[in-house]
Amino acid sequence: MSYAGLIEATGRVNDFLNAGSVLSWDARTMMPKAGAETRAKQLATLAVAARNLLCSDEMKRLLEGAETEVAGKPDSSADVRIVAQVREAIEYHERIPTEMLHRKTELGAAAHEVWAEAREKADFSIFAPALTTMVNINREMAQAIGFEDHPYDALMYRFEPGTTTAGLSTLFARLRDGIIPLVRAIADAEKPRSDFLFRDYPVDAQMQFALQMAKRIGYDTDRGRLDTTVHPFEVSFTRNDVRITTRVATDYMPMSLFGALHEAGHAMYEQGVDPAYTRTPLATDLISLYAVGGVSFGAHESQSRLWENHVGRSRAFWSNHMGDIKAAYPGLLDDVTDEEFYRAVNRSEPSFIRVEADELTYDFHIMLRAELEAKMVDGSLEVAELPEAWNAAMKNYLGVDVPNDAQGVLQDVHWSSGQIGTFCNYTIGNIMAAQLFDTATSENLGIQTALDGANYAPLRDWLTDSVAQHGRRYTRDELLVNATGRALDPEPYIAHLTTKFTDIYDLS
Length: 508
Ligand code: ZN
Hints:
The chain is an all-alpha fold. It has a domain at 2-121. Helices cover 62% and strands 2% of the residues. It has a 3-stranded mixed β-sheet with strand order 1-3-2, sandwiched between helices. Helix 1 packs antiparallel against helix 2 and helix 14 (362-378) runs antiparallel to helix 15. It starts with a helix and ends with a helix. The mean pLDDT is 96.
């Protein structure tokens, strides 16, 4: 009885969170700007309501009963996992005082304006006091949440449980050893032709083609839709309503296409979650308070990167779909071969802007941020020293000179809202994508043959079986071990980048 009651009660938490997601989707796609202030309050109210419902006496009573009911069942059974996750989430939220959360939310609202002004004037000193306060709140939160080795571990726990600062440092060192020689070699190599990507591509045609290709790889539009936005995202309100967005630049066509493929990858993860998990904790992240079925933000990113980079930026993809893209943009690509197109959408050039970074250089933007965040959080780097440390790391990793703070340390919005500890998800996603793709295509020869013939169903089915259907039942590393035989392993990723870029730039 208690277990059934717990499922219904956590279902109501899921309802609050999904209602918040609808408001958030609307805010980022349809809402007039003037609605922003009230909308932020509505979202905060729903998040607090969800948290309070989760931590209510009624929930605890049901949980205790449910723990007795499932006692003795196998550790991996869904009901045992659900009960354990609810217990873990309640304990997590109760460790963070509500007063501290309020302070962080209020500071975030104020800090955003200060950050925007600092970026506008390219002057970090304007933002430094607000960032110092934000770092201090995050340090307080880390103490409240608790950690074994490093306070940054506590902050990463919310989005990427199990990740440690020490583990990241080992992972990053291996990536640097593998990727920096490629970046250096490409700097001296001849650039592929890319002029045709910058022609005048009509907005409507871009959205049509983006949707066509998202559907082509398997995004189910009977349970989704595509809209335009400034910063592309995917959001699900259960597996049967999973929406994606992309952005369009008339003078740079790949943005809309690869944005849509990326978000479709996220969406197929949510659309593939076992229907039996709908409204349960196995489709609700009760720690980060998002109604998602993905097991971690890194795992989610693995699905988007896999479809975007391993499929959408593959040679096979463009030898199969060059005719489609030429038909979508009549007359605009007549002078371009599929090989030229493939090379153009894979060209690599170090940039100081993270969101414009290519597949090969992206991880350096993440390493730099995660390393600086960890140092700010443990106190070994003062906020005042941040711009200098940032610029030095950019030079060291990518060989670029940052022209000013706006294009350097002030470029991302994350720190102004107090988000510290989230960047590592992107690199974990890249590593996990390569590991999954490598296993899928090397152990099951039919999958690569199908991809060569523009048949995406076998890969999609493999990913649904290995990852998506399980929702949040298994941890990220359990999923990886079950699917690939080992935990997070950077080698397939380094091998993928080495093979691809050595070939494209004739480096051998
Ligand atoms: Zn993503």
